[in-house]
Design goal:
8 helices; four-stranded antiparallel sheet; 2 domains; seven-stranded mixed sheet
């Protein structure tokens, strides 16, 4: 379980994501995902730089693939993640791509202290990362930290699952993912447990085998706070964000609480 305390004692443990770092780029089909998601990000980000290319901070960058793709398009990017092993992978991926990108280990609530002399034009929090903040107080502290990293009027882009739909349907299962190379096969199955306290336990089963051999299984879990649209928008307002807009996915469609796959929120830091 994630130790998600925010305040003077910051979020410090990410066993699920440290464990997953080696396989994360196998689990995620990055070519398809980036081809789908980057066009919307570009439309939202274009023109945000006050003096040259917009400066972008990815607050939960994982293995760094979004910021690498954006840096390749000419944006000035930095990435942070709570998982040291994810940051190691991000640095390796950037080096392979020939990109010089600043990556630092930092959890939610630590970002302004980690980048104290920088104000960004855009802050990203993608990939269902924000629901790892487990209480309203921690959510407020996290969003306030986002605001402190942005210039006045700067743009915040959040992406998470549509928990309005998840909590109404109580759908536990997500599609399985598969990967293979010349010697090995991987299968990844994700599912939820809906806990009595209102949180969700997010589980991933990773199956791996050398071709022709027996499967080996690993199960990892972490907790999520199923943040509905109302919860997210209210937290943004309390932290001084304005002009919030909700979309239903990375194709830019309108948000429908019943049917949208994702909740994508954009908002502006107040002046």
């Amino acid at each position: 379980m994630l130790d998600a305390t925010i305040g003077d004692e910051k979020m410090t443990e990410v066993p699920m994501y440290d464990s997953l770092a080696e396989d994360y780029d196998r689990f995620t089909h990055w070519t398809n995902r980036l081809n789908f998601e980057i066009p919307l990000l570009e439309r939202l980000i274009k023109g945000e730089g006050k003096a040259g290319a917009p400066r972008i901070l990815d607050a939960a960058c994982g293995t760094g693939m979004h910021v690498i793709a954006l840096a390749q398009l000419g944006y000035v990017c930095a990435g942070a993640d709570l998982s040291p092993r994810m940051i190691e992978r991000a640095k390796s991926n950037a080096a392979t791509a020939g990109m010089n990108i600043e990556f630092r280990v930092a959890g939610f609530g630590q970002l302004q202290k980690t980048f104290p002399d920088q104000l960004f034009d855009v802050l990203l929090c993608l990939g269902n990362s924000l629901p790892h903040v487990l209480t309203l107080q921690e959510l407020d502290e996290t969003v306030t930290d986002f605001a402190r990293c942005l210039r006045p009027g700067g743009l915040l882009i959040l992406q998470s699952r549509n928990f309005d739909s998840v909590m109404s349907s109580l759908n536990r299962w997500m599609p399985a993912e598969a990967f293979s190379d010349a010697e090995h096969e991987w299968l990844f199955q994700r599912f939820y447990d809906f806990e009595a306290d209102g949180l969700i336990r997010f589980n991933m089963i990773t199956l791996k085998r050398r071709r022709g051999a027996d499967w080996q299984a690993k199960v990892t879990s972490t907790m999520l706070y199923p943040q509905t649209e109302q919860v997210v928008l209210a937290a943004l307002t309390r932290s001084g964000f304005t002009r919030s807009t909700s979309l239903g996915g990375m194709s830019g469609e309108s948000f429908d609480p019943h049917s949208s796959p994702n909740l994508v929120v954009t908002a502006r830091r107040g002046s």
